[in-house]
Amino acid sequence: MFVCLCHSVSDKKLRRLILEDGISDMREIRRCTALGSQCGKCVRQAKEILNDTVAAQYKQAS
Q: What is the rounded CA–CA span in Å between residue 14 and residue 49?
């Protein structure tokens, strides 16, 4: 599913950046993808994906 239509950023790409590249905040996501730099409608959903993925990663590590 596309999270950011303006820059063609999918939820899979976001999860891959978080899990494989260790990205842990929106600033880093914006640097890598330009997400949220045009219309901004995707930012809320991207934050949810970021928070959910990071939380799941910590639960798995415990």
A: 8
